[in-house]
Amino acid sequence: MGTTLDCDTHVAFTVKLFQQTIVNYSAFAFYFQKPEKGDDASVFECLSAAEWRLVTEMEAIVCSIADLARIEVQRSGLVASELIVLLKFAADRLNGNMFSLCDFDACRNTTTTVKSFPRHAVPVDELSPLAHTCLACLKGQVEQRIAATTAETVMFLLLDPWTKFSVNSLIQPSNRGSDEEGKDGRVAEDDEANDTTEWIVAAGNKLLVDAHREVFCTMNASATGSAQNAARIASPNLDLVRVQIMRR
């Protein structure tokens, strides 16, 4: 999987700003009723109720990607298979039918935090047009990363005991055709996605078999003293396979 981009990290910090602003909304409203000298009371009034609502919608939509970006940055030892699982989880959340929005009218106190802040479920159809635009863009970006799955990615998943039995579902795109595209269009897209997934999984299996063969040939050649006759099959992840074999 590709490394975390700076823009991904920026998204994470933007969502954190959204969350802190939502939690402290009532404090802002109270302060700007009697602002200190030099602060303009009209600043708070520049944002309409619809724009505040959009903040909660974007926070709910982008939150899963922000969590993924923070995890990638904070956990330098995270292996590729774990990142794929987290990315798939984020994609499934984006393709869900409901989003959990922060409740602006909820009561707040000094102990209220982002985690304890009340939320309510909102159907995706009830989101604003701008929120739908944000959702569509984010879906495309996430699915683009999943679609970039390679045979090496499959081999990472096969080597991980936690993911080796769910490889197909992890690299299968989450998006499906909409009702407007028609049943035939959805079936054709699903068939094409399934064919692509099967091809990538087959390539990953072959890469893993070749890597295992190279390791065993090298081990056997070392044992018999004829290393010059060992089969040499190129594999960019020989060390990973060797570690897995030695653990068994």
| Proportion of residues in β-strands | under 5%
Number of strands: 2
Average of the residue pLDDT scores: 74
Sheet with the most strands: spatial strand order = 1-2
The domain tally reads 2
- From the spread of the alpha carbons, the general shape counts as elongated
The description of the largest β-sheet is:
2 strands, antiparallel
Radius of gyration: 25 Å
**How much helicity do the residues have?**
55-70%
Give me the secondary-structure category: mainly alpha
What string, H for helix and E for strand, traces the elements in order?
HHHHHEEHHHHH
Q: Which regions contain 5 or more consecutive residues with pLDDT less than 50? A: 177-181
Total helix count? Answer: 10
Q: What is the terminal-to-terminal distance? A: 26 Å
List keywords for this structure.
single chain; 248 residues; mainly alpha; 2 domains; two-stranded antiparallel ribbon; 10 helices; 62% helix
What does this structure look like?
This protein has 2 domains: 1-148, no CATH class; 149-248, no CATH class. 62% of the residues lie in helices and 4% in strands. The chain has helices spanning 6-23, 25-31, 42-45, 49-74, 80-94, 129-147, 151-159, 167-171, 183-224, 238-247, and strands at 98-102, 119-123. Strands 1-2 form a two-stranded antiparallel sheet. Helix 4 (49-74) packs antiparallel against helix 5. The radius of gyration is 25 Å and the shape is elongated. Residues 177-181 have low confidence and may be disordered. Residues 173-193 are annotated as: Disordered. Residues 177-188 have a biased composition (Basic and acidic residues).
